[in-house]
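Listing S7. Sequence submitted for prediction.
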Amino acid sequence: MVTVEDAIIARYTKDGRHFEILVDPAIAYDLKEGRTVSLGRMLAANIVFTDAKKGTKAGSHDIQAVFATTDVEKIAETIVKKGELQLTTEFRRKKTEERRKQIATFISKYAINPQTRMPHPPDRILNAMDIAKVNVDPFKPAEQQVEETIKALKSILPISMEEAELNIEVPAQFAGRAYGALKEFNIQKEQWLANGSLIVRIAIPAGLKESVYRKINALTGGNARIVEEVKR
């Protein structure tokens, strides 16, 4: 368990009620990234606050109203996943740099120089990202930042990436949550059918195909229909 002195604050506000907890920054970051962590080790104190710096505890009525539980670990999981982490400047810098390298590696793997038909090395891409002043979000998956990064790099490097166009049909019972995930991508067309089913066409870097298939199948229990058309 992290000490209170080394912990950071995770914040979450819902229905006008504000909550804070003290957490280990590395473990909380991993949880927000979708990794499985020990919630007990993440918490510096088994207390839900309205103001952690002042030590003001949240009322049990407000906690129950928002989280429908008084289990501090379950509450902490919700706060970290849905709320905001107050990362230190150094920790944010470190994670941003890690994300930059992930983006550059992805682009190097899946994009090419159309003049030579050869990939750009990751270091060249990182240098171009610096020149183009690409803003990297340490909380957003690298794959979801590739498209905007490539747009920014086109003024610096000759670069192109194979795109995949996916036509996805989602049954009504899964449509709402699947649509929330699909909004992360470039939606070219969407149609809601009378029975509540959703048909969406998205354009993504071809290297993202497998991760999109996995995400949609996980959200729909494998009941979505995905038809692929690859374009250059």
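Caption to Listing S7: primary sequence and predicted structure tokens for the chain studied. The chain has nine helices and eleven strands. The longest strand covers residues 163-170.
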